[in-house]
Amino acid sequence: MASSTTSKPPEDASKLGYSYVTPAGMCLRFRQSLAQFSDLFSEFNKYIAPAYHHDRCERSVHMRLYSMNKREFATVFLAFFACFGLGIFIGLAGPPITVMSKVSGSSLQPNVSTSDTATNYLARGPFVMRTPLLTTYSQQLWIIAKITTDNTDDEMVDKKFHISVQIEGLTAEHKPMPVYGGTHNGGADVKNRTRHLSCSYEECDEFTVLHIGFLDYAHYIVTVQFYGLEAFHQRYNIRSVQFYFKSYNPAFTQIEIWFRFIFVLFTFIITCWFAHTLRKYPMNDWSIEQKWLSILLPLLLLFNNPIFPLIFIANTWFPGIIDALLQTTFLCGILMFWLCVYHGLRQNERKFLTFYLPKLIVVLPIWLCAVVLGIWEKCDELNDPTYSHFEDSENYN
Fold it and tell me: Which of 173, 203, 248, 298 is buried deepest, with most CB atoms within 10 A?
């Protein structure tokens, strides 16, 4: 029995309501790349989004960060940049950090009778100078020297020479009191410090003559003498010697004290508010960010140094070293925080030996080196005003 089938003609694609057009080669490849990237991001997203195996979900204390909308995010960032811009504006419009005055070495030249002494005065000295008026808010004093020559040769000159410094403080009765060198302790503590004179053409680099870390007197009488520049003077002719007196601006010091007080006050308030907010939750339920904030906020309070005013009233190394210690501890604490948070994205088991100890091994030497070097420099500068850490690199090493 034969059966016959009739074939229907193909229908027009336009009558079906849709059509398919093969995309171009570059467009297709671009879409496939985006699809692969989306799949890769979806695989990685489960490690950074709140999930059951993270401590950022329901089994930890809920953070306000995860429920903020776009408007609240914009408000937070706007407030941050407003405060940041206000700080920059105060810094630009406020007083300069330091004040500086200068005196020419030729104006300090005494009346001499011998021509040799007059000719080599700028290469030898002695330069007897009286510092400007200094107050407690001036904090510290630097004396910086700059030498100008008649050198026209196309060469760099690096000359090693020595300086000796004698310091006397003027009391309220204008009586000189030995502070360093000279007749102080029978003159036994006079030291010749080594300095390097680097010159290019006529200009020579500045070098620090002395640094007084605490000001006991309103005025100082400083006597500076050079040794070993006579041959340099005969060849290149020292044209002038300028001495610069540099100290902190008292107006800036007052602003610094107020800013430190305001930051200490606000940090204390925020720390108390943070502790009050989380007091009803057990610490085991805190997220890693909340645990670290409970450490960083007290460190920030110490970073602003509540005992900062002691620097102006105590002639001792203790306040300066405490300030350096607290600042170093806070910065190393931030480094430890970021190491733990970034590693904690993929690490849920945070035992001390496997999670925190390797990071402590990385951060602790940095903290120890910074503290030791800070204490070393503070103590040496208070004991010896002519001390320079640039010349003390061998002891550092």
Answer: 248
CA distance 142 to 385: 9
Q: 374 and 283 in one domain? A: yes
Where are any strands of DSSP class E within 294-360?
Answer: none
Beta bridge mates, 203:
148, 200
One-letter amino acid of 192: N
Question: Do residue 243 and residue 109 come from a single domain?
Answer: yes
- Whether the ω angle into residue 250 lies within 30 degrees of 0, i.e. cis, is no
pLDDT digits (tens, 9 = 90+) for 14-25: 455 555 555 556
The reply to whether 171 and 144 lie within a common domain is yes
| Per-residue pLDDT at 57 | 45
Identify the segments of the chain with pLDDT beneath 50.
1-7, 13-14, 48-58, 183-188
Q: How many residues are given for the chain?
A: 397
Q: Which two three-digit tokens encode residue 265?
A: 């006050």
pLDDT score recorded for residue 87 = 87
Beta strands 192-200 and 203-204: pairing type? antiparallel
Q: Which two tokens stand for residue 136?
A: 């407690």
Other Cβ atoms within 10 Å of 70 Cβ, number? 7
